[in-house]
Amino acid sequence: MNVTKDKISSVFFQYSIPSVLGMLAISSASIVDGFFIGNYVGDFGLAAINISFPIFSLLFGFALMLAIGSSVTTGKLIGEGDIKSASMIFSKTMICITLFSFLSCTVLFLNVETILHLFGADENLTKIAIEYLSIILIFIPFLMIGVVLDYFVRVDNRPNLAFVALLSSAIINVVLDWFMIVYLQKGIFGAALATGISQLTLLIILLPHFFSKKATLKFVKPIGSYIQIIKASYNGASEFVNEISIGITTLIFNYVMIKNFNIEGVAAFTVINYLLMIGIMISFGISDSLQPIISKNFGAKENKRIEEFLKLSFITASIVGFIMIVLILFIPDTLANIFLEDTNYKTKQIVLNFATFIWIAFIFNGINLVISAYFTAIHRPLHSMIIAVSRSFIFPIFFIFTLPFLFDLNGIFMAIPMAEFISFIIAVILFKKFSPEKIIYKL
């Protein structure tokens, strides 16, 4: 498949469908975790996962920064026909992610209790969260390496293999969740072990590709400076900033929810995050699939093709948003019941109050993600970062502290939709200023 010459719709769907299905596999695994923990461990289990989330944001964000930045650079080099330089960047990136993942997880593992107290967890919540994190941190390096491999496999024209790896990981996670939590009754410890083991699947499936005859990218002896990796990572910095911002925002939201609704508030926010995750991960799958496509067409200076790919992405992301809005407006009780037992009445009521406002976010978040991915693919990381930070940090924090003065507790529930709306305005302005035609014309 030649992404710079083949039929637009064919290329788009052959990249986006595996990417979306892969993201659905990832999100469904997390959602199944939430289902089993919510129904078999309880509110405190859901709260423990959410209080640990900023740690995942830091680690996953770094992996995304390396993966997206380096793979986009690699895609551009492949589009220009420079396979040797592309393989060099790939090899150096793998060395960087391997060293960082194991070192950072070791440091976090040794200081996990102190970190959880800084996050605002009390003694009971800290005890459950440590039980979860002490297992997860052992396996996270394999997930981080697997995420980077996933991006390079896709830029190496194997999007279906990337999907198979993500789907396999999700299926193993679901099966092990049931076995560990329900059958063996291992609680939060079992959930962590199931998730950790499933993360090894990515590595086992994806790594052999780069030793096969089908691979364009190969492991080569790293020669010269690693400055090029730092520069490439800068292009993916918006994703790192986005993940870190989400982690900080989650910390602040957890604080606000505990202050106003106790532990039930954190559990309810966790459920809302699961609902947001479904729609966002689909849209992220669409936008994510654009990066290898646009980066190669950018290298080939095909602005008309880039415009067509973006049109398809905007339409698809809007359809996803509409479906999520319908589900949240018409069956909020059913969605809440997936994660909560009937006895969790207080938590469920908070979820339903949240759902009254959160659906508005789905009008805008898909378009925001697509435009942000477009800027990353054309090597405009600052513009991508502006959108990412606006929707995940600056405006959510601003609105969660200001809207309650105007709308009481409802202001808390309105913060995320308002942040997406303002970010949408910023994204559209930036896109009009740096459209594909204008960018290619400058080149």
* Class based on secondary structure composition and strand pairing: mainly alpha
Largest sheet properties: none
Write down the secondary-structure element order: HHHHHHHHHHHHHHHH
Distance separating the two termini: 26 Å
The outline comes out as globular
**Gyration radius, in Å:** 21 Å
| Residue-averaged pLDDT | 85
Summarize the structure in words:
With 443 residues, this protein is mainly alpha-helical. The chain has one domain. 86% of the residues lie in helices and 0% in strands. The chain has helices spanning 8-40, 43-80, 83-110, 112-118, 123-155, 159-183, 187-206, 227-235, 237-299, 303-330, 332-339, 345-358, 361-377, 381-407, 410-433, 436-442. The longest helix has 63 residues, at 237-299. The two termini are 26 Å apart. The relative contact order is 0.13. The model has no long low-confidence stretch (mean pLDDT 85). Belongs to the multi antimicrobial extrusion (MATE) (TC 2.A.66.1) family. MepA subfamily.
Task: Map the helices and strands.
Blueprint (H helix, E strand, L loop, with lengths): L7 H33 L2 H38 L2 H28 L1 H7 L4 H33 L3 H25 L3 H20 L20 H9 L1 H63 L3 H28 L1 H8 L5 H14 L2 H17 L3 H27 L2 H24 L2 H7 L1
Helix pairs in contact: 1-6, 1-7, 1-9, 2-3, 2-5, 2-8, 2-9, 3-5, 4-5, 5-6, 5-7, 6-7, 9-10, 9-12, 9-13, 9-14, 10-13, 10-16, 11-12, 12-15, 13-14, 13-15, 14-15
Pfam families: MatE (PF01554)
Keywords: Antibiotic resistance, Cell membrane, Membrane, Transmembrane, Transmembrane helix, Transport
Organism: Arcobacter venerupis
